[in-house]
Write a structure and sequence with these properties.
Shape: globular
Number of strands: 22
Bound molecules: flavin-adenine dinucleotide
Structural class: alpha/beta
C-alpha cells in the first residue's frame, strides 16, 4: 500500500520547503521529496547563499586592499586565502541547509529522499516506493540554460555552480551573459584579482531592469574595471591546454574573432526543470518554454496538482517562490493566499547594489501610463559621503495624476535593503508624497529615498 499524505511537495528549494512548512503549520500531514543530499534547493546549495557568502568575502578583501588608506588605516601585505574563503562559504551553506532540516523536524515534515516521478495523476514513486497525496506541489526549480557550441565541464567552462567552486583566481574570466548571476559572480572574481570580460548578445546589460539604471550600472562596473562586449554572441568554445578560446561574432552578423579566457562562465539564464518527473504520466501540461502551466492559484490542468517557484512563469527569485509556497499552502486549507506580482523586489548583489520594484520607465511608456520621475543621487547624501560610497541614485516613478507609486529603482550602496521601504509603500498603495512625508533618520542612506520621493514633486531639499 502506498503511504499517503495531505500534501507532497516535490523539491525542497525556497518554494518547496516554505510551502511544506506553512502547510504543516496549518495542520496538514506533509512530505517533501528532495533528490539532493541536502535540503534548500538551488538557493541554499548553489545559488543565493553561497554566492552571497563569496560576495561578502570578496567585498571585504577588496575593501581592505583598496579603501583602507582613504580612511587613514594602514595595513600590511594582504594575502588571499581562497581555500579558507571557500571553506567559509561551505560552512555558511551547511548551516543554512541544516537549518531547513531542523525546521522539517520541528514541523513534523517527512523528507522523502530521492527523485520523485509521477506514475499517475494521483501517485508518485520515490526510491522504489509509492506515495499518494490529496495535493501534489511541483517545486522542482530551474537549471542553467546551455549554449550550442559551448560545452560545460564545470572546470574551464563553468555554470554558476562551477564558478562558486573555483580553487584559483582566474587571470581572465569571460562571462557569457550580462545578467544578474554573471555580474554577481563576475564581481566576486574581479574583486579577487581577475580581469573580467562580459559578452552579451543584447546591446545592454541586465535586461528587465530600468534602462537608465542599467546604463548607469554598466558605467559603474566599467569604472571598476569590467570590460563589456555588448551586441556579440559566442558561437564556439575550444578548451586548450592553457584555457579556452571563444569564437565571438557580432549579434547582427559580421566577422568572427577569438577571445581567450582562463575560465568561461556561462550565465545566459535558467530554464524550468522537470526532467525525470514524468509529467506526462500525470498529464500535466507545460508551456512553450517548458514551464509548468498554472492558473491564477497555482493549479495545473490536473486537479490536485499545483506548481510554484522557478518551474512556473514569473521572475526566477527565491522570495517569489517562497511567497507562492505560502499562498498555495493557505489556499489548500481554505484561506485566501495571494501574491502581489506588482510588488516583488529584485536585487543585484554587486557593489554598489541594484534594486528594483514595480514598473520600469519603459514598461510605463509601453502601457501608455503618464508618470512623474523623481531622482536623487547618493553623491548628495551625507551618510553616503561618510561611507565613501557615492555612486548611484534612487529613481521613483509615480502616476502623473494620482501620484501613486508605480515603480522604484535604486543603484547604490545597500540598495537591496533600501528597496524594502518602497516595496512596502507599493504594497500599501502609497503615493510618492506619502514616502516624502515620512520622517527618515539622519544621516542614513534612506534619506536618498525620501529625497527622490520629494523630487517626484519637484521639491528635493538637498540638491
Ligand atoms: C548563482 C545563483 C544565485 C542566485 N541568487 C539569488 C538571489 O540572490 N536572490 C534570489 O531571490 N534568487 C537567487 N537565485 C535564484 C534562486 O535560487 C531561485 O529563484 C530559487 O532557488 C527557486 O526556488 P525553487 O524552490 O523554485 O527551486 P530550487 O531552489 O531550484 O529547488 C528545486 C529543488 O527541487 C529538486 N528536484 C528537482 N526535481 C526533483 C525531483 N524529480 N525529485 C526530487 N527533487 C527534485 C532539486 O534538486 C532542487 O533542490 C540565484 C540562483 C543562482 C543559480
Amino acid at each position: 500500500m502506498a503511504e499517503t499524505f495531505d500534501v507532497i511537495v516535490i523539491g525542497s528549494g525556497p518554494g518547496g520547503y516554505v510551502c511544506a512548512i506553512r502547510a504543516a503549520q496549518l495542520g496538514l500531514k506533509v512530505a517533501c521529496v528532495e533528490k539532493r543530499t541536502t535540503l534548500g534547493g538551488t538557493c541554499l546549495n548553489i545559488g543565493c547563499i553561497p554566492s552571497k557568502a563569496l560576495l561578502q568575502s570578496s567585498e571585504n578583501f577588496h575593501q581592505v586592499s583598496h579603501s583602507m588608506k582613504d580612511h587613514g588605516i594602514a595595513v600590511g601585505e594582504i594575502k588571499l586565502d581562497l581555500a579558507r574563503m571557500q571553506a567559509r562559504k561551505s560552512e555558511v551553506v551547511g548551516a543554512n541547509t541544516k537549518g531547513v532540516e531542523f525546521l522539517f523536524k520541528k514541523n513534523k515534515i517527512t523528507w522523502l529522499k530521492g527523485a520523485a516521478k509521477f506514475t499517475s495523476a494521483t501517485e508518485i514513486e520515490v526510491a522504489g516506493a509509492a506515495y499518494t497525496a490529496k495535493h501534489f506541489v511541483i517545486a522542482t526549480g530551474s537549471e542553467s540554460v546551455p549554449l550550442k557550441g559551448v560545452t560545460v565541464d564545470e572546470k574551464r567552462i563553468v555554470t554558476s555552480t562551477g564558478a562558486l567552486e573555483l580553487d584559483q583566481v582566474p587571470a581572465h574570466l569571460v562571462v557569457i551573459g550580462g545578467g544578474v548571476i554573471g555580474l554577481e559572480l563576475g564581481s566576486v572574481w574581479h574583486r579577487l584579482g581577475a580581469a573580467v570580460t562580459v559578452i552579451e548578445f543584447l546591446d545592454r546589460i541586465t535586461p528587465g531592469l530600468d534602462n537608465e539604471i542599467s546604463k548607469a550600472f554598466q558605467q559603474v562596473l566599467t569604472k571598476q574595471g569590467f570590460a563589456f562586449k555588448l551586441g556579440h554572441k559566442v558561437t564556439g568554445a575550444l578548451v586548450t591546454e592553457g584555457g579556452v578560446e571563444l569564437t565571438v561574432e557580432p549579434a547582427k552578423g559580421g566577422a568572427a574573432e577569438t577571445v581567450k579566457a582562463d575560465i568561461v562562465l556561462l550565465a545566459i539564464g535558467r530554464y524550468a526543470y522537470t526532467e525525470g518527473l514524468a509529467l506526462d504520466a500525470a498529464g500535466v501540461e507545460t508551456d512553450e518554454r517548458g514551464r509548468v502551466k498554472t492558473g491564477p492559484h497555482f493549479e495545473t490542468n490536473v486537479p490536485g496538482i499545483y506548481a510554484i517557484g522557478d518551474v512556473i512563469a514569473g521572475p526566477m527569485l527565491a522570495h517569489k517562490a517562497e511567497d507562492e509556497g505560502v499562498a498555495l499552502a493557505e489556499r489548500l486549507t481554505g484561506q485566501a493566499g495571494h501574491v502581489n506580482y506588482d510588488a516583488i523586489p529584485s536585487v543585484v548583489y554587486t557593489w554598489p547594489e541594484v534594486a528594483a520594484v514595480g514598473k520600469t520607465e519603459e514598461e510605463l511608456k509601453a502601457a501608455g501610463i503618464d508618470y512623474k520621475v523623481g531622482k536623487f543621487p547618493f553623491m548628495a547624501n551625507g551618510r553616503a559621503r561618510a561611507m565613501g560610497d557615492t555612486d548611484g541614485f534612487v529613481k521613483i516613478l509615480s502616476d502623473k495624476t494620482t501620484d501613486k507609486l508605480l515603480g522604484a529603482h535604486i543603484l547604490g550602496p545597500d540598495a537591496g535593503t533600501l528597496i524594502a521601504e518602497l516595496t512596502t509603500a507599493i504594497e500599501f498603495g502609497a503615493s510618492a508624497e506619502d514616502v516624502a512625508r515620512i520622517c527618515h533618520a539622519h544621516p542614513t542612506l534612506s534619506e536618498v529615498v525620501k529625497e527622490a520621493a520629494l523630487a517626484a514633486d519637484g521639491r528635493a531639499l538637498h540638491i
